[in-house]
Amino acid sequence: xxxxxxxxxxxxxxxxxxxxxxxxxxxxxxxxxxxxxxxxxxxxxxxxxxxxxxxxxxxxxxxxxxxxxxxxxxxxxxxxxxxxxxxxxxxxxxxxxxxxxxxxxxxxxxxxxxxxxxxxxxxxxxxxxxxxxxxxxxxxxxxxxxxxxxxxxxxxxxxxxxxxxxxxxxxxxxxxxxxxxxxxxxxxxxxxxxxxxxxxxxxxxx
Length: 206
Prior knowledge:
The protein has helices spanning 20-23, 29-42, 102-118, 135-145, 159-164, 181-186, 196-204, and strands spanning 2-6, 12-17, 122-125, 150-154, 172-175, 189-193. The protein has a six-stranded mixed sheet. β4, α5 and β5 (172-175) form a beta-alpha-beta unit. By secondary structure, it is of the alpha/beta class.
């Protein structure tokens, strides 16, 4: 599949061939759902915690005598049926994360990349030069491409570009190794630097 390579003025400066094994695969939404669900589960803190009747700070003294009061008998203030008593089956700290297999993760990423290309939301950029870390420079670059909500994929560390994008809430800069389904689906466009294509191919062609 042949795709145009553009510059920051959205002018075609060349072409590049994208492998069908990555950018033209069968749509299987259930795999994408599995991977995105796993990502969101892994983000959960899992720190919710309640006290059981064994952990509530009350004495072991019987609150009132057994008979003669007309009330139901009570043996402890820690009982879950009492106010400020322990909690039955309440949440405890736990790890919600789970990880799909590497094959499923790769397949899901290929599906999302193929969908972006089919929907004409994938842009191959020759280079994104940012002399210094300025939000304005990054915003003007996206404006020149005619896009807003975008993920920009770089081949490696590009400190100026990454710092320039931090103040723009609807865009993000990711390195090849950080490319993931959730961020691609959460942004309208995908901007891939030409040098990043080799890294994506090496990561997914296994």
